[in-house]
UniProtKB/TrEMBL annotation:
Organism of provenance: Aurantiacibacter xanthus
Domain SnoaL-like: 21-146
Protein name in UniProt: Nuclear transport factor 2 family protein
UniProt xrefs under SUPFAM superfamilies: NTF2-like
């Protein structure tokens, strides 16, 4: 006869191992995203690119989509260098991380608060939302999709009451692999990026249709 007590114990151990793996993934992913922010802060673009999976994608504001780690590295290295008089802070905040049941993929929503400027030239505030995807590749967590939606981008000395800076367009000399996957506008327009997770209390799913309904950008 089967030993029911042992079978029950084995199932409980397996369940605990799965839960520990998922909890460990949460911490690893949080550290991964925080590391990305610190590297970008100091224009350490190769270090930031190393955090992406081989077939990852990156899409920031209206700059288009870059596909694959090599193309992501090219895009990042086209951004301004860190030099005397520069500020380029990208704080990674307010994570909601959802790890898959098998512990091999995950999604996360983050808020970035940004300070950017150059001495004697300009100073700006920015804020926005990431909806990212992660994958366990080569025995470690990597960014599989990074998609940043700018909420606002404004001049420091004027603030958002004076209006916003236009949504960033493709960089000169660095063509994206694809055009933007979501057309939207930054402040004063309103766009709510779809939530990857259901409401944790009501269970209600968010849809792209709801995001479009809340958008104030004409025709989007």
């Amino acid at each position: 006869m089967p030993d029911l007590a042992n079978e029950t114990l084995e199932r409980e151990i397996a369940a605990l191992r799965t839960e520990v793996r998922r909890l460990s993934a949460w911490t690893d992913i949080a550290n991964l995203q925080a590391a990305y922010g610190y590297y970008v802060d100091k224009a350490l673009y190769d270090e930031a690119a190393d955090l992406f999976a081989r077939d990852a994608t990156l899409e920031i504001a209206g700059r288009g989509l870059f596909r694959g780690q090599d193309r992501i590295r090219t895009y990042l290295n086209a951004l301004p260098p860190m030099e005397y008089g520069g500020v380029f802070n990208h704080m990674q905040l307010q994570p909601v991380i959802t790890v898959s049941e098998d512990g091999l993929t995950a999604k996360a929503r983050w808020r970035a608060f940004i300070q950017i400027g150059w001495l004697g030239r300009e100073a700006r505030w920015a804020e926005g939302t990431y909806e990212n995807r992660y994958v366990f590749e080569d025995d470690r967590w990597k960014i599989d999709r990074l998609h940043f939606f700018t909420t606002y981008y404004v001049e420091y000395d004027k603030g958002w009451n004076e209006g916003g800076v236009e949504l960033a367009k493709p960089l000169d000399g660095v063509e994206p692999d694809e055009t933007v996957t979501v057309a939207y506008g930054a402040f004063p327009h309103v766009y709510v990026p779809p939530f990857h997770y259901a409401n944790p209390v009501s269970g209600r799913e968010w849809t792209e249709e709801r995001s479009r309904q809340l958008s104030t950008l004409t025709g989007k």
